[in-house]
Amino acid sequence: MIILLYIDPGTGSMLFAILIGVIGTLSYLLKNWAVKLRFLLSGGKKVETNTDKLPFVIFSDDKRYWSVFEPICREFDRRGVDMVYMTASPDDPALQNPYEHIKGEFIGKNNRAFARMNFLNAGIVLSTTPGLDVYQWKRSKNVQYYVHMQHAANDISGYRMFGVDYFDAVMLSGEYQVQEVRDLEKIRGLPQKDLIKIGIPYMDEMAKRLQAAERKEGKEGHVVLLAPSWGKSSIFQKYEGKIIEVLIKTGYHIIVRPHPQSFTSEKETIEKIMQEYPASDQLEWNRDNDNFEVLKRADILISDFSGIIFDFALVYDKPVIYADTEFDNSPYDAWWLETPYWTFTALPRIGQKLTMENLDTLKAMIDECIQDPKYAQGRREAREETWEHKGEGTERAVEYLLNKYDELTQDKKGA
Known about the structure:
single chain; alpha/beta; Rossmann fold; 7-stranded parallel sheet; 15 helices; 42% helix; 15% strand
């Protein structure tokens, strides 16, 4: 008789942490024995025990973050500084990067990748992945410094609870983000992290690319991009396929670009909607890894709380319609804060809210958002608040990392 055992995610994470602890202890003992053996074989002479320490490591849990990290890698390469790029995606563009000083390494998927990171020997680790030392990803005793960098221009409190609590430093782009982190530190009794406002390197790159791109004229009709986030507060969970049905009735060309995580976490929902509304001359489904072209083609974006809203509004300077999805902040760091969620203060200034009650007037909303100049003013305000040091993000990030590494190595020499 076969007995199937179910382990809930929390218990699974705990068991994984115990396993990691056991493996870590064994790893330490084996390393200690190896050092002692080398000491004996060398005739009692001192043996260097940290020759395999990597100065700089980038950890990416998905290939879609290459666009976030690529400017950093390019600048490291330009300066002749070596870095290892560790990724959990076997088809990550970083693995075929063109930079002499950037080594791409696939470290396995999911828990296998975290297991590799948990025993890493490095000076500084840079990552967009939140939740360090919360679930599977643990701080390695052999890593000196962990730095978090955001992959979207919005609230730092939008991560799941304790998202950046255990990083040593966080790179930010606006003063409101600094205040969010400081408030969370105070509430939770945490030591203050190093907070650096660098700007947004990937948006700087996107802006340069847009400026250099060819502009196509003579397009007939509007192109509407529907790009929901994922989870129970997202567009497809509330409106399902009805929103596509209404969009088709506008007569405009429709591009649907679901969040990549939707194809994993809500696979049945996405597959059902794709079957009900298959691709046609008027409707296309987009899954490009690089969203540059699809954002450039669109005249207006419809989304919920996805970070793509601010890419579209602030870089491409185009209007948005944001869905009222009754966002539940209970799983997020925002739940702990009394200050307003910045994203929801910015949205009314850059576009209109879509509800079940006004869904049938969507065509009129699209036309008004495209034509009304007040939304252009709102975009300027939001840009100033969340994209400081525009055009300087990469240089500021790299300068900070190099200076911090010099500081860490000097401290070690003086110890």
